[in-house]
Amino acid sequence: MSTESAQLPKSVTSERVIDVRHWTDRLFSFRITRPASFRFRSGEFVMLGLMNGEKPLLRAYSIASPAWDDALDFFSIKVPEGPLTGRLQSIQANDNLLLGRKPTGTLVLDALRPGKNLYLLSTGTGIAPFASIIRDPDTYANFERVIVTHTCREIAELAYGQKLVDDVKEDPLVGEEATAQLEYFGSVTREDYVNMGRITHLIENGHFFKTVGTEPFDPERDRVMICGSMGMIRDVRALVENAGFIEGANSKPGDFVVEKSFVD
Ligand code: A2P
């Protein structure tokens, strides 16, 4: 698969795929080269895609690697008939992909006021920006405890997030901080598992706070980042707003921030 074309738009660069890993029949991750001039803040997203004839076919993807890393990681669903993921799921090492030049996004530490606990709440591919944030030393400097949650339909879909958290604890840069400050909470909705149910349900019935050993959400102490489907964002947003949390932005830091994960 090639992105080489005389028509390559100015807004993108052509990058080489370094590695591809398939986690389940619905999820895969890949690593691509990072241009020397490409700067981003941990948690941001960027346009990514392929040439489709003469035109680029691009979608927003959260960057799953930290800002200091040499290469860029991404996490994607596979939609058999999806215009982009239908083709993207068959990429292999040494193929080329298009990468936008201007990353952006709201799931950044700068958009949150100082606090004690940082909750990173995700479903499905929504864990991708948190893969970046939990490898950023600033996260551990700014917060005492960092709790990342991941809810998927099936147990196998939790594997990427679990490996990520295990690896962060061995990381030379943030391993010590992560071991002391980072907690992982996974739940599954369509199979038997130790934590069963949507995160909204487990927050409301207290199971989540009891399991991680914290108190219910309090805007004086807690900050929340939310990334998942439209429905998940709507429902988690309602929960934190009912608890008195104010939404933050780059220009005006607040108590919580949200972002929709890529769907195609
Ligand atoms: P469920 O299985 O009950 O739909 P998806 O793969 O469809 O994006 O879903 C990923 C996970 O997000 C699933 O476990 C799903 O649960 C859960 N989910 C879907 N909608 C919501 C919602 N509105 N609030 C919380 N979790 C949700």
From TrEMBL:
What name does the UniProt record give this protein? ferredoxin--NADP(+) reductase
- InterPro entries from the UniProt entry: FAD-bd_FR_type, FNR_bac, FNR_nucleotide-bd, FNR_type-1, OxRdtase_FAD/NAD-bd, Riboflavin_synthase-like_b-brl
Q: Which reaction does it catalyse?
A: 2 reduced [2Fe-2S]-[ferredoxin] + NADP(+) + H(+) = 2 oxidized [2Fe-2S]-[ferredoxin] + NADPH
**EC number, as in UniProt:** 1.18.1.2
The protein's matches in Pfam families, at most eight in alphabetical order, are given as: NAD_binding_1
Which keywords accompany this UniProt record? FAD, Flavoprotein, NADP, Nucleotide-binding, Oxidoreductase
Coiled-coil residue spans = none
- Which species? Denitrobaculum tricleocarpae
Q: Which family does this protein fall into?
A: Belongs to the ferredoxin--NADP reductase type 1 family.
Molecular function as annotated in GO: ferredoxin-NADP+ reductase activity; nucleotide binding
GO biological process, alphabetically ordered: cellular response to oxidative stress; heme catabolic process
Taking every annotated instance into account, which residue ranges of this chain make up the domain FAD-binding FR-type? 10-110
**Superkingdom in the source lineage:** Bacteria
Which cofactor does this sequence's record say it needs? FAD
